[in-house]
Please model this.
Amino acid sequence: MTLRRPARHVSVKDVAARAGVSFQTTSKVLNGGGSVSEVTRARILQVASDLGYVPNLQARSLVMQRTRTVGLVTGDLGDHNLGRFIDGAEQEARRQGYGVLMTGVEPEGSGTEYALPALMERRVDGILIAAPQMEEDRAVAHVLDRTLPVVSLHHVPGAGVSMVGSDDEMIGHLATQHLIGKGHRVIATVIGKPAREVTQKRLRGYRHALEDAGLTFDEVLVEAADGDIGAARLATLELLQRRPLITAIFAQSDTMAIGALSALREREMGVPRDCAVIGCDDIDMAVYTVPTLTTIHVPFFEIGAQAMRLLIETVTTGALTPRTVLLPVHLVVRESTQEPTR
Amino acid sequence: MTLRRPARHVSVKDVAARAGVSFQTTSKVLNGGGSVSEVTRARILQVASDLGYVPNLQARSLVMQRTRTVGLVTGDLGDHNLGRFIDGAEQEARRQGYGVLMTGVEPEGSGTEYALPALMERRVDGILIAAPQMEEDRAVAHVLDRTLPVVSLHHVPGAGVSMVGSDDEMIGHLATQHLIGKGHRVIATVIGKPAREVTQKRLRGYRHALEDAGLTFDEVLVEAADGDIGAARLATLELLQRRPLITAIFAQSDTMAIGALSALREREMGVPRDCAVIGCDDIDMAVYTVPTLTTIHVPFFEIGAQAMRLLIETVTTGALTPRTVLLPVHLVVRESTQEPTR
DNA sequence: CCATCTTAGGCGAACGTTCGCTTACCCGCG
DNA sequence: CGCGGGTAAGCGAACGTTCGCCTAAGATGG
Model:
């Protein structure tokens, strides 16, 4: 097996030499500027392709002061919603010819100190944040403020950061309203990390829906679960023990809803017969749980695309005041809140 | 709200001017080379931090001919396994001070023509591939061959690409062997896309395990399902109809196993009482299915980290012949192949 | 007291681009 | 025949680094 040679990349100078012109002329041809005769243009293009010329975007960025690359700060990719968001964002970036430089931050929030500098050293034009844990990090806002366009999927403390997401209060409201509409009166809710904005907003939606229907909000019916299946299972068991007469549960994510289903099964309670369950986010799996899961659909893919669109727009227009964009959500009714259909 | 100014980045020259030295001296201080007196070194560092100097890695890369950035070609992030792989890879890259430039390719394989050039233009030092669909793309191998170090999670046609993964034949073997050990004799299998290496290897493992136990391989017991839950459900229904006396199913992924569970439930067959099910990959969800899912654990996170380690090593040593690294897998027994424990 | 060595720091070039100007040429017109 | 105008192409600088080499000193030694 032959040893791999470093094989320097062919540059515009190499092409120029071969074509018998100055490298500046080559540059002109390769990116459309200036006036070049048809014949030399053709020759240069021919040589470029023969030699397999690939422009060096780094050098270009150096002079242009724009990298056409955005940074992406991401949390755990195991999170299905983040995955969809990122897919949408990356696809949109690609469509617009932007590169995406990703850097993760650990669930515990470590890596944050590293993430931003790493991106800034590489001179990204803007930053997209898809990491819930950054919400707690006040330093972030400080580093970012007024220095680079930033768009986030989550609320970020301190101003200057645009946000693209969904109307979380509406989500809580829709879900709860649906349960109320089905005749439920004792509706518990399994929430995520209490410190997070999403959690509080979805909870507020829940509360308002109850109050709108003349029901009273009861703290005892609220239990936190850190977002994962296992914790949600425990939270549900706890709720069931505290208030055996619960007839419906609103879980603040489908993942947690699955945990709730798991707990109910353990208690040998039928869903939806003994207790209805509604989640939100609408993950793929929701169609395959037993029973299938009623949920609020959140368009994460579109949110990602939209966020990237906003970020790039901000970058190119050199824009101004941060914006908040909320995409619409809707209820998807499946078995977990319906009487069995057989 | 104030308008954001372009606010040029501070360069080593700015720092130098402020500190009253030449920019080259500043450069020396900032990255350890040469000899500089303690006092000026301190002064320069002070000024650099005052001014908020952030080195420009692009410029550095230009002269060093290395970007310390690797490209990551990824398929759908909805795939939980890919997510874990990428997490592992990114984390390792970060640990070694490498940036990760990601670009997706669509499930149908479009985007492939774009992905590689986009990475090459940005002069990545190497490429990590985590996109099963690239397997079918012969062009890839051609573009990549001998031009850049490449490591892939999947088999890539044409030589020159290292691979880090797991022993798929072993996976099929372990799974099937486990079912045989439980006394099953009519074992069906739901496989993924037949064209893929993984599929064929896992299938081979299944076949050999049967033959080792003196059972005959029967094509009628094999059904393909494109990898998603819905397709796996249909495939399972088809199998059950063809051979009602099936007592166990080996699904080539946990996702497909969930589809199989769904189908069995429809047919009102108890798992594992009427039919056992085993999957592979060991996704998080496997602990929360009904019943919980026996599976073969595949360490995707470690595979990702290992792949990145190999890639970076290849980059730095300017290395040679492609390698294949397989990480060990193991059986995780849960309810879906055990008699109920109550 | 001069030759040599060491140390601190500067200089110039290079990396691969883009961009604004200048130059050389050809053409037609008065 | 000379001049203006257009077109084709080249030139020089700049972007922010690193790196090898050079030059002043001051210190050391014989």
